[in-house]
Amino acid sequence: MSIGEVLALLQGEFPDVTISKIRFLEGEGLIEPERSPSGFRKFTHLHVEQLRYILTEQRDHYLPLRVIKDRMAEELGRPRAVPGAQETQEVRLSRAELLEAAGIDDETLTELEDYGLLAAHARRYDQDALEVARSVGALARFGLHARHLRAVKAAAEREAGLVEQTVAPILKRRAPGAIGEADEVAREASTLLLDLHAALVRIGVRTVLGR
User: Fold this and answer.
1) Residues 82, 32: Cα–Cα separation, whole Å
2) Torsions phi, psi of 164, nearest 5?
3) Distance in angstroms (rounded) separating the CA atoms of residues 148 and 74
4) CB of 132 within 8 A of CB of 153?
5) pLDDT exceeding 70 applies to what percent of the chain?
6) Would you state the pLDDT for residue 129?
7) Per the UniProt record, which residue ranges are transmembrane (predicted)?
8) Number of CB atoms found within 10 A of residue 47's CB
9) Do residues 189 and 163 make contact, with C-beta atoms less than 8 angstroms apart?
10) Which residues contact 191 (CB under 8 A, 6 or more apart)?
């Protein structure tokens, strides 16, 4: 089944479920659909049952995802994981290594730091810094440089503020598991905001092009 077909099967029982929610659960490793050669997700009835189980546990018992994941493995079984599919290696790059990996020069990196688009921690750069540097390096081909991207940074900070609003009530409860629950909520809210941001940019670009 496609992700749209899975959504149609679940929405009667779970009206709030969305494609972004299903993608979020996949990103957290709770379901592992296969991919077609063209990159489309391929779901089975087992995946639907797993999703139904996850959504029920969240709705009825307010369980954190890590607990649901353990229970699901015991009670339902899960598709065989592809080795390394969910593994990420921590990135800790020196300044010279970042310049080489991102394909930018020292002047550009200094400009990125001056405008607050990225920063080193203990003289090392992480994966997010690398992605920022690569993106800015690619955008330079279109005449966009760090000084032009302050609006993007400001928008990201405002969106981070919205995520903070969603998790603040959870953290104030100081209940057992509150930090884990807040982390899950922050991840899902961030994913939804990114989807919204991308859609609004596409709408804006169509307007610019007169479409």
Assistant:
1) 9
2) -60, -40
3) 51
4) no
5) 91
6) 92
7) none
8) 24
9) yes
10) 20, 23, 24, 27
Q: What's the CA gap between 95 and 65, in Å, rounded?
A: 37
Query: Rounded to a whole number, what is the largest CA-CA distance in the chain?
Result: 56
- CB atoms inside a 10 Å sphere around CB 149: 18
Which residue is listed with tokens 């953290």?
Answer: 171
Return all residues near 195 (Cβ < 8 A) that are at least 6 apart: 20
Amino acid identity, residue 149?
L
| pLDDT at residue 183, rounded to an integer | 83
User: 109 near 133, Cβ under 8 Å?
Assistant: yes
Tokens found for residue 39: 């990159």
Arithmetic mean of pLDDT, 160-179: 86
Averaged pLDDT for residues 184-207? 86
- Nearest in space to 186 (alpha carbons), one of 201, 171, 172, 197: 171
As a whole number, the mean pLDDT across the chain is 84
Alpha-carbon torsion (195, 201, 202, 207), positive or negative: positive
Beta bridge partners of 93: 125
Instruction: Give the residue carrying structure tokens 């991840």.
Output: 187
**Whole-number Å distance between alpha carbons of 110 and 146:** 10
What CA–CA distance (Å, rounded) separates 112 from 129?
10
